[in-house]
Amino acid sequence: MMTSRPAPPAPAIRAEGLVKRFGAKQALAGVDLEAPRGTVLGVLGPNGAGKTTTVRILTTLMRPDAGRAEVAGRDVLADPEGVREHLGLSGQYAAVDEKLTGRENLYLVARLYGMGRRAARRRADRLLGEFRLEEAADRPSGTFSGGMRRRLDLAGALVARPEVVVLDEPTTGLDPRGRADTWKAVRDLVGEGTTVLLTTQYLEEADQLADSIAVIDRGRVIARGSAAQLKARIGGERLTLTVADPRAVAPVGELLDSLGPHRCDHDPRTGRFTVAVEHGAHSLEYALSLLRGWGVTVRDVELAPPTLDDVFLELTGGAPPPGPVPAEPDAAAALTTGSRA
Amino acid sequence: MSAVHRIPRDATIVAWRNLLNLRRTPGSVIAALIQPVMFVLLLAYVFGGSLGGGDYRTFLMGGIFAQAVTFNAAFTALGLAKDLDNGIVDRFRSLPMPRMAVLLGRTLSDLSMSVVTLTVTSLCGLLVGWRVGGSALEAVLAYLLILLFAFAMSWVGAAIGLMARSVEVAQSAGLIWLFPVTFVSSSFVSTRTMPGPLRTVAEWNPVSATATAVRDLLGNPPPPGTDPGTAWPVVHALPYALGCAALITAVFMALSLRRFRRISLV
Predict the structure, then answer these.
(1) B95 and A93: CB-CB below 8 Å?
(2) The whole model's pTM is what?
(3) Dihedral class, residue A144 (left if φ above 0, else alpha if ψ from -120 to 50, else beta)
(4) Which of A323, B85, B125, B190 has a Cα-to-Cα distance from A70 of 20 to 30 A?
(5) Minimum distance, in Å, between the CA of residue A234 and any CA atom of chain B
(6) Distance CA A56, CA A43 (A)
(7) Is the interface score ipTM higher than 0.85?
(8) Is A114 within 8 Å of B96 when comparing Cβ atoms?
(9) For the segment B17-39, what is each residue's pLDDT rounded down to a tens digit?
(10) Which tens digits make up the pLDDT trace of A126-160?
């Protein structure tokens, strides 16, 4: 740059129009992502939405059919080696060598990042301490618990103090303690200025950690923004109430539908109704007074801001079907046919 | 690529990791060592008696060496297939290391394995009466030739391991080709009694040339009455064996690397 003013910092992760196809299956149909430096980008989506494909492209493990991406200011197609030097990846399935000890695993990764023997040894010791793995450091990692293996894998991703860390479902299958540890590690990283891309199926995780969230479904980003923005997008609060009497289901459903533009969901198994309402307290009072007048007993009532689950179900159209589950008669029919055959 | 100078360094590190793995799975190492020892004993005492007795046992060892290191190619195939399967290769691929180092690391660690195999097989040979007849320098050259051939065969194993779609396929595909390749040769018997076309195949088989060149260098002549023939690769066993090792290494290294790049970038 000729000017004295520094150029605005490029985002640490930028992807434009990523397309990937596996045979007949369109895994990615044009994914755009952006994460400014020092932030956490949460990529949220169900299984098979394209999260892992996106991760593999950004980490240079796979080439997109179309589109471009930059990680740490380097193009993933033109300069994959450069990307790898500034990137740490922790995969969905912890890629640790089971026969090597925790210490050896980290030493191996450090050496392959180009560190000398002593620096690698020191870095391995340091990370073992940070990730509470000292006691197990000299045991083969195959004997580690699931949580310890994940911590070791995560430590491996951080060996070279990379600018960008990509975590593919880092807490899938972890117990609450392991999850809390991972969350803390992510917060510490961001505190040090690292940019993190995190894929997850857990909305709570994205809510807790991510500065911005991209919701992916069927290979497309169907919504993006902060957790608050996404919640605001579907508006209002959630009114949840449970009635015991099955005869009340129809009138209660009609009543809740009439509260505003949103239709209510009813879970026949638990008897619980859920509806999005614009004026929470008012709607609650109104509904309860009517129900009292009809003599319907309300077992349980709750008014809450929407969770990311609500956002997600609404955006992906995966809301539970209202009324009785239609699969059952079909399943019964299939069984009958099967026994006849 | 600027990373070329890192290939030997990173390959050594990967080889270190592979050897640690081998050391911690002693069962598979022992199994791999039992096989050549078993062949020495079977051939020396079951077949050897009718093939020339003590003279045959001296002749046999060159063939055993060639066969034993060829069988180590199955190790390479299985090792690479396992690494691809358990995610460690994904870890390697996300690191700023040359792709080639992953493959070279594997073939180098299997070369160390071949050194162990050769040591055990040689000791076993000494026990059954085999002796080095030539000079020490020639003996050193003989072992170097065997290791060169081992390295070449390891690259064949690497290509098979990378083509296999699963560990099970790699395991069986890595083994079956070894039997015809090592037996349709002059490793254990004279090619003279083989039918015409098979004899030609055996004479031109790099395993035969390696075994013959090694016998020449070790001063282990064929038992009396067995005519090795006058085919070009028999008469020029050493240059032919060296040429084959170089060619096999070059071809299968290129094939493996291309295949590895392809699976890396699905």
Answers:
(1) no
(2) 0.81
(3) beta
(4) B85
(5) 38
(6) 13
(7) yes
(8) yes
(9) 999 999 999 998 898 899 899 99
(10) 999 988 899 889 999 999 988 888 889 999 999 99
